[in-house]
Amino acid sequence: MRVILNGEPYETAAQSVSELIAEQASAARVAVVVNDRVVPAAEQAAAALAENDRVELLTFAGGG
Amino acid sequence: MNHEDDFLVLGGHAYTSRLLLGTGKFSSADVMARAVAASGAQIVTVALRRFDRDRPNDALLAPLLGMKDVTLMPNTSGARNAEEAIQAARIARELCGSRLVKVEIHPNPRHLMPDPIETFEAARVLSADGWLVMPYIAPDPLLAKRLEEVGCASVMPLGAAIGSGQGLASAELLKIIIREARIPVIVDAGLRSPSQAAAALEMGCDAVLVNTAVADAEDPPAMAAAFAQAVVAGRRARLAGLMPVGTEAQASSPLTAFLQGGAHA
C-alpha cells in the first residue's frame, strides 16, 4: 500500500506500524505519529496501517 | 550558606550543576559528548527531527544515554504554535522518559524571538499534564510571573537573541524577573563568554543554558569546562554577597602618616 512517510509518498508491504518501523529504522529509536496521533510503543504492533495514512517517524537530533 | 547544600531544584529534583548545555551545532557527536562531559551539565537539551534512514541519529544519542548523571530535556524547536509544541512534547516522551521539556516557540527565523502567547498556552497545558515545563521567553517580568502561576518548573528568559553572543543585553529586565520569581530563573540564549555566565549567576540567575558559545568555540570541550568554572564562581560570589557600589574611593590601606610629608594612600 502507499502511505505518506515523513511527507513523501512511500510504497510499503508493512501492514502495521511496527512492521513499518522494522523496514525503516529497525536499529534506531523513533517515535511514531500516524495521522497526527502519537502511537505509543506498546500499541505499534497492533496499529494497522491504511492506504494514504500520514506517518511521521521522529528522532532526537542536536539542539539547544 | 553551605555550598554543599546549594542545589538547583527543578520539580523536586536537586541538581548540583547550574550549567545546562545544548547539543546543537557541534561538528560531531564525539565533540558534543566530550563537551557535555567537560561541562558537568546534568541537563542537556535535544531537538526533534524527522527520522532519516540514511542518517540515523544513534551517534548523537548513544553517548548521552550512557551518561548516568545526564537528563535529556527535549525542546519543542520547530513548533510554530502551542498545539505543535504540545504535540512535540508528547512525541519526545516516546523517545525519553524525561518529564522535563523546554517549550520554545519562535515562528520568525530571523530573530527567533519566542511567541509569548503561544508559549504561555503550551506551558499551561503541559504543566497541567504533569510536565516540568521550562519555557524559553523574552525577558518579560509579567510573563515570567504568569508562567510561574500556571506551574512551570522554571522560566528561561533570553540574555540576547539565540546564537547572537551579545551576552546579558537584557540585564535590567532579568533583575526584575529574578527579584519577583519564586521558581528558578535560567538565562537561556545570547551568552558568548564564561564571564557573562558568571555575571548572570552573580546577578542572581539560578543557572544558564548555553549551546552556541560552546559548540562554536575553537575547542568546545575546553570552553565547556571554562563555563563550568565560571558558573561555580558566579554562584559562589552571589552567595558570598557582593560589596556595595560606591561613588567615592574607600581606602583599603591605613592612611596614617608614617613618612615625612603626610598621608598618601
Question: How is the secondary structure organized here?
Answer:
The complex is a heterodimer of chains A (about 60) and B (about 260).
Chain A: E1 2-5, E2 8-11, H1 17-25, E3 31-34, E4 37-38, E5 54-62
Parallel strand pairs in A: 1-5
Antiparallel strand pairs in A: 1-2, 3-4, 3-5
Chain B: E1 8-10, E2 13-15, E3 19-22, H1 29-39, E4 43-50, H2 58-65, E5 71-74, H3 82-95, E6 100-103, H4 116-128, E7 132-137, H5 141-149, E8 156-157, H6 171-180, E9 186-188, H7 194-203, E10 207-210, H8 212-215, H9 220-240
Parallel strand pairs in B: 3-4, 3-10, 4-5, 6-7, 7-8, 9-10
Antiparallel strand pairs in B: 1-2
Tell me what you see in this structure.
The complex is a heterodimer of chains A (64) and B (265). Chain A is mainly beta. Chain A has one domain (2-58): Roll (Ubiquitin-like (UB roll)). Chain A contains 1 helix and 5 strands. Chain A has one helix at 17-25, and strands at residues 2-5, 8-11, 31-34, 37-38, 54-62. In chain A, β1 and β2 (8-11) form a beta hairpin. Chain A is globular and about 40 Å long. Chain A starts with a strand and ends with a strand. The model of chain B has no long low-confidence stretch (mean pLDDT 92). Chain B is globular, with a radius of gyration of 21 Å. Chain B is of the alpha/beta class and 265 residues long. In chain B, α1 (29-39) runs parallel beside α2 (58-65) and α5 runs parallel beside α6. Chain B has one domain: Aldolase class I (TIM Barrel, Alpha-Beta Barrel), CATH 3.20.20. In chain B, the strands form 3 sheets. A 5-stranded parallel sheet of chain B has the order 5-4-3-10-9. Chain B contains 9 helices and 10 strands. The chains are: A mainly beta (64), B alpha/beta (265). β5 of chain A pairs antiparallel with β4 (43-50) of chain B.
How would you concisely characterize the structure shown here?
The complex is a heterodimer of chains A (64) and B (265). Chain A has 64 residues and is mostly beta strands.
